[in-house]
């Protein structure tokens, strides 16, 4: 496991993990405590569960913002626990990130189909864990029930937050093309410098890194919910070729669009 407190990583926004309520569901005590200690140092409120049944009970009782879920656990495995949480109106809105050492594409697909929003590989790279958490928590306000000491206003209540929200709306409406930075800035009513600073402050990434992430989310949705050809999806999302889209999708999710869709179809067979 690797941990870093480099100025670059801190600059990317890990300070925004302060005050976040996270549940770690992991049956291996050493890994559970290592991850918990790292997140506590970032200022998170961390809750622990050692098996799938405990994870469900803790999520129902504590209502964390996000669950880090091991795939292989006793009582209920991670996939079963995830499905149960997603089917419960009390916990269905909680984001779940799977943790596993298994890199097989079909295992990743099964996790996504169960309702997870992302997949973190073991052994952990703490920089990656922190940045992925920051990404998935970006649109959630910090719960008022447990405010962090010295916590600053959340981005949505600041000028940076207003700029970010306006730019995000513009980008989501223009996934099929790659606008220039000054176009995005004008749409958000600001200048390029302020635009860049707002994205760094609010989500810890550049404008185009964020656009790429939004495209990948939309790609997954289109592959799952439509019969569009992969080439058509690539064009709709602004990729110059199906090959470029395929490479980007595989980099993000660990499998090609075709593999993802094939696993979807296989899962639906009786």
Q: What does this 3D model show about the protein?
A:
- This protein has 3 domains: 8-137, Response regulator (Rossmann fold, 3-Layer(aba) Sandwich), CATH 3.40.50; 155-204; 209-268, Homeodomain-like (Arc Repressor Mutant, subunit A), CATH 1.10.10.
- The chain contains 13 helices and 5 strands.
- A 5-stranded parallel β-sheet has the order 2-1-3-4-5, with helices on both faces.
- The model is unreliable at 144-157 (pLDDT under 50).
- The chain has 270 residues and is of the alpha/beta class.
- The longest helix has 19 residues, at 207-225.
- It has helices spanning 7-11, 29-41, 52-62, 78-86, 105-114, 126-137, 159-172, 181-187, 192-203, 207-225, 230-236, 242-253, 257-268; strands at residues 21-25, 45-49, 66-70, 95-100, 118-121.
- The N and C termini lie far apart (40 Å).
- Helix 5 (105-114) crosses helix 13, helix 7 crosses helix 9 and helix 11 (230-236) crosses helix 12.
Explain the layout of strands and helices.
Blueprint: H1 7-11, E1 21-25, H2 29-41, E2 45-49, H3 52-62, E3 66-70, H4 78-86, E4 95-100, H5 105-114, E5 118-121, H6 126-137, H7 159-172, H8 181-187, H9 192-203, H10 207-225, H11 230-236, H12 242-253, H13 257-268
Parallel strand pairs: 1-2, 1-3, 3-4, 4-5
Domain HTH araC/xylS-type: 165-263
Modified residues (4-aspartylphosphate): 70
Protein name: Response regulator transcription factor
What would the keywords be for this entry?
270 residues; 3 domains; globular; alpha/beta; Arc Repressor Mutant, subunit A; five-stranded parallel sheet; Rossmann fold
């Amino acid at each position: 496991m690797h941990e870093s407190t480099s100025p670059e990583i801190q600059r990317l926004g890990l300070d925004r993990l302060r005050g976040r309520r996270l549940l770690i569901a992991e049956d291996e005590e050493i890994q559970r405590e290592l991850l918990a200690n790292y997140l506590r140092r970032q200022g998170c409120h961390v809750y622990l569960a050692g098996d799938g049944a405990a994870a469900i009970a803790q999520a129902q009782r504590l209502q964390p913002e996000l669950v880090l879920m091991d795939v292989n656990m006793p009582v209920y495995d991670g996939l079963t626990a995830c499905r149960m949480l997603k089917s419960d109106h009390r916990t269905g809105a909680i984001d779940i990130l799977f943790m596993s050492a298994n890199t097989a594409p079909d295992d990743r697909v099964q996790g996504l189909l169960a309702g997870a929003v992302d997949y973190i590989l073991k052994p952990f790279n703490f920089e990656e864990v922190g940045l992925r958490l920051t990404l998935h928590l970006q649109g959630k306000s910090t719960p008022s029930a447990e405010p962090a000491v010295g916590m600053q206003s959340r981005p949505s209540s600041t000028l940076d937050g207003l700029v970010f929200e306006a730019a995000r709306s513009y980008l989501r409406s223009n996934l099929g093309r790659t606008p220039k930075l000054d176009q995005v800035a004008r749409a958000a009513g600001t200048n390029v410098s302020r635009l860049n600073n707002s994205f760094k402050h609010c989500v810890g990434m550049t404008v185009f890194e964020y656009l790429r992430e939004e495209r990948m989310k939309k790609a997954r949705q289109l592959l799952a919910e439509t019969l569009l050809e992969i080439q058509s999806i690539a064009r709709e999302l602004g990729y110059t070729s199906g090959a470029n889209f395929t490479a980007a999708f595989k980099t993000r999710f660990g499998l090609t669009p075709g593999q993802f869709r094939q696993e979807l179809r296989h899962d639906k067979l009786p």
